[in-house]
Specification:
Elements: H1 3-27, H2 35-59, H3 64-79, H4 84-105
Length: about 110
């Protein structure tokens, strides 16, 4: 890749990133009162985080079974209102033990 192509890609990326952030500020000049739009905007970060994290869960382990077990443990702990640290540690320990057991079985 030559420098011209690199800087072209860089400018397109920077421009699109800037536009995604600048257009809402330019388009909406007053406070949003609509309940649906406020609710939609409230849940966007959670949806994006889930969309980025969930596929990685299944591809980061050697066995899909251990990934599913870790996800189930994380969901159960989260539904019981445990802290983020407890949920993460429980899921990691579950995946580790499942990977260890699967390595002994194969």
């Amino acid at each position: 890749m030559d420098n011209f192509q690199y800087f072209t890609y860089l400018l397109v990326l920077a421009g699109s990133t800037y536009l995604i952030r600048a257009i809402p500020f330019a388009a909406v000049s007053r406070k949003i009162e609509n309940r649906f739009i406020k609710s939609f905007l409230y849940y966007i970060p959670y949806a994006v985080l889930t969309a980025m994290t969930l596929p990685a869960i299944f591809y980061v382990t050697d066995y899909v079974v251990s990934a599913v077990l870790g996800l189930l443990v994380a969901v159960i702990f989260a539904l019981r209102n445990k802290s983020l640290t407890v949920v993460a540690v429980a899921a990691c320990v579950t995946v580790y033990l499942a990977e260890l057991a699967m390595s002994f079985l194969t």
